[in-house]
Amino acid sequence: MAGQLLSSVRAAARLLCTFTATDRELGVSELSRRLGLGKSTVHRLLTTLAAEHLIEFNPRSGRYRLGIKVYELGTVVSSHFELHEAVATYIDDLRGRTGETVQVGILDGREVVYIERRESLRTLRHMVDLGHRNLAHCTACGKTLLAALPEVELDRVLGDDRLPARTPHTITDPGALRAELVAVRDRGYAENVRESALDTASVAAPIHDDSGRVIAAISVAGPLARMNEATRRRYATAALDTASRISEQLGYRRSQQPRTRSA
């Protein structure tokens, strides 16, 4: 059964990839010929994909074309590429200004996923791969991203249960975390002091897209011995400046009102 499911997924993927800029619409017979599959199989694939809005039928031509969902997925991929390109211009500069590790994270449920990272040249490399995850509520990037969520979405993500603890300093009470997120919004950046690891601290600032939505956060992290309160404030200023420049490159203008509190 597992083999059949994988075969069906592969066939569906091949079908979607058959559509191109020059072949925007294709009929069942043409798809059957190109894919080397029976017409009944192709019809079942098209019916399934159409139900998920990945394919749509054009009644005027009697052919099929890519659906709106593919366009929506494409805009997500495009925004990720734009983010990577915008970040690459400034992330090395921020590491040079601070001498510490700089990371860019996005939110995935209760976790922050690091999509860009530059290790500090002052310490041994941690060799953390891109795509590394950590709990959002105990990281500076994560708290920045949680603070930008609409209330309804934040309630859904956090729930009412106690949150996992990385250290004795991790905020585990959802109510206390919500109060911390209010402080994050008020000062414009987030802090993590011994919350994810006892010997580290970090600060993070939000990155906005052209609609004003917070789509990522950029952080500066280092050993607690080098990240005292005064240093954290200084690095927070640098992170805010860098995040602002990245946001502007993505089309955000400071006169826009960030969409952080409405559903």
Helix content: 40-55%
State the separation between the terminal residues, measured CA to CA: 41 Å
Strand order of the largest sheet: 6-5-4-9-8-7
Number of domains: 2
Q: Tell me, rounded to a whole number, the average pLDDT.
A: 88
Characterize the biggest β-sheet: 6 strands, antiparallel
What Rg, in angstroms, do the CA atoms define? Answer: 23 Å
Low-confidence blocks of residues:
124-130, 258-263
So, CATH architecture of the largest domain? 2-Layer Sandwich
Question: Could you say which overall geometry the principal axes of the C-alpha atoms support?
Answer: elongated
Tally of extended strands? 9
In CATH, the homologous superfamily of the largest domain goes by the name GAF domain
Run of helices and strands: HEHHEEHEEEHHHEEEH
Return the CATH class of the largest domain: Alpha Beta
Describe this protein's structure:
Mean pLDDT is about 90; it is low at about 125-130 and about 260-263. It is elongated and about 70 Å long. The protein folds into 2 domains: about 1-65, Winged helix-like DNA-binding domain superfamily/Winged helix DNA-binding domain (Arc Repressor Mutant, subunit A, Orthogonal Bundle); about 70-250, 2-Layer Sandwich (Beta-Lactamase). It contains 8 helices and 9 strands. The strands form 2 sheets. It has a 6-stranded antiparallel β-sheet with strand order 6-5-4-9-8-7, with helices on both faces. With about 260 residues, the protein is of the alpha+beta class.
Characteristic key phrases:
Arc Repressor Mutant, subunit A, 20% strand, 2 domains, three-stranded antiparallel sheet, 263 residues, single chain, six-stranded antiparallel sheet, elongated, disordered C terminus, 9 strands, Beta-Lactamase, alpha+beta, 8 helices
